[in-house]
Amino acid sequence: MIAPEPTPEPDSDRASLDDSGSASVAASAPTLVADSQRFLRAVRAPDDHGLTLDTVRRRLADASPDELAALGPDEQLAFWLNVYNAATGATLLADPERFEDRRRFFGESIVTVAGTDLSLDQIEHGILRGSQWKYGLGYVPNPFPSAFVRRHRVADPDPRVHFALNCGAASCPAVAAYDAADVDDQLDRSAASYLQSGTAVEDGTARIPRLLLWYRGDFGGRSGIYALLRKYDAIDPDSISRIRYREYDWSLALDAFRTEEGSR
């Protein structure tokens, strides 16, 4: 469950850009991650903690590009995972019918960060996947990313983000509030939960989540997928002779928040 946190005093934790230069910018990185968590909490329980979506959205929109660029690798992961999931939830809770045209939903701008309007596709495929083409199965880079994406994309993409991003569909992974200090362990837990719950084995055939097909290059191809399934105890390699990909359930599901025990 996403735990409550004390409401900060207005602007008390927003570091300002002053004569200290880069040190001041770097010091504000934890604040950005905290704001992304607040965004998620405001979606999950908008009446708690004295937070409103408008307030949190404004804080993210008003962040400086230099603050954003100062995020370390773990801070980047936690920040963008939270922003993606929160923006998805906020948008679909306000207007569920937008999910009916998924191409438009993923491609249109739904959140503003550091003064730049962003779509879910830009966050996922541009920033978190390091400028990969959406339909390239993880093998085809996007040669024309925006200037914002070039500056803020993850330098070393982590394929486990696919087990953390929730676009609103029933087959999506559950939502968690990611924290920079624990994001590696959190992603391991998310991967294990999603792969174990989404894999069924019968008569030597493993039926596995379709995400593994859509982004197979991200996972290292067929051998990488097998290694991933073994790593997270989703299959017994000695009992598997082939794999098949399960159909993806695109039914809208807007309450897929992970509990402390790891279930929905």
Protein described:
There is one protein chain. With 264 residues, the protein is mostly helical. The protein has one domain (22-245). The protein has eleven helices and five strands, in the order H-H-H-H-H-H-E-E-H-H-H-E-E-H-H-E. The chain is globular and about 55 Å long.
Quick summary:
With 264 residues, the protein is mainly alpha-helical. The protein has one domain.
Quickly count the helices.
11
Overall tally of domains = 1
**Uncertain spans:** 1-24, 260-264
Instruction: Compute the CA-based radius of gyration.
Output: 19 Å
Q: Which structural class is indicated by helix and strand composition?
A: mainly alpha
Distance between the termini: 9 Å
Shape: globular
Q: Which range does the strand content fall in? A: 5-15%
Overall pLDDT score? 88
Q: Give the helices and strands as they follow along the chain.
A: HHHHHHEEHHHEEHHE
The percentage helix is 40-55%
Number of strands: 5
* Order of neighbouring strands in the sheet with most strands: 3-4-5
> What summary fits the major beta sheet?
3 strands, mixed
Q: How are the secondary structure elements laid out?
A:
Elements lengths: L21 H6 L1 H16 L8 H10 L2 H5 L3 H22 L7 H6 L1 E5 L2 E4 H9 L18 H6 L30 H16 L1 E3 L2 E4 L2 H4 L6 H11 L10 E4 L19
